[in-house]
Structure formats: C-alpha cells, structure tokens
Amino acid sequence: MGEGLGKTVREIRKIREGKKAEKAKKEEEKKVQKGNLISDLKKEVEEIPGLKEVKTIKETAEKVKNLTKLLK
C-alpha cells in the first residue's frame, strides 16, 4: 500500500512540475510576442512619411529655445 502511495505521489509531482514548466514556457512566449509586436510597431511608426523631418525640426526648435534661455 505504501509503495502504491509513493508512486502516486511521484506521479502527482511530475504532473505538477510539467504544468509549471508549461506555464513558464507560455509566459516566455507571451513576452517574446509582445516584444515582437512593440518592435514591429516601432518600425511602422518610423516609416511614417515626414516623421524624420518633424523630429529634426523639433530638435532644432529645442536647441533654439535653449540658446534663447542662455541669452536672457
């Protein structure tokens, strides 16, 4: 009886460990998918026509703003 109970406990532990590993694997896959989605979105945003020009204009405006603060 004890031997049967021991085998049952071991099987339950194996199942539990398998489920933990499966859950961890699913969580990791979700992180990778989320990272890929964010990366894809960033690429799409960077391809918006005129975005680079707007960035350059904004940076230049910030520089001018900082210079005018220094001159006051």
Characterization of the model:
With 72 residues, this protein is an all-alpha fold. The protein has one domain. The chain has helices at residues 2-46, 51-71. It is rod-shaped and about 90 Å long. The model has no long low-confidence stretch (mean pLDDT 88).
Keywords:
72 residues, mainly alpha, 2 helices, rod-shaped
- Share of helical residues: over 70%
- Mean pLDDT over all positions: 88
Globular, elongated, flat, extended or rod-shaped: what is the shape? Answer: rod-shaped
Distinct helical segment count:
2
Total domains: 1
Percent strand equals under 5%
Oligomeric composition of the shown chains: single chain
- Give the termini separation: 91 Å
Quick overview:
By secondary structure, this protein is mostly helical.
Layout of helices and strands, plus pairs?
Elements: H1 2-46, H2 51-71
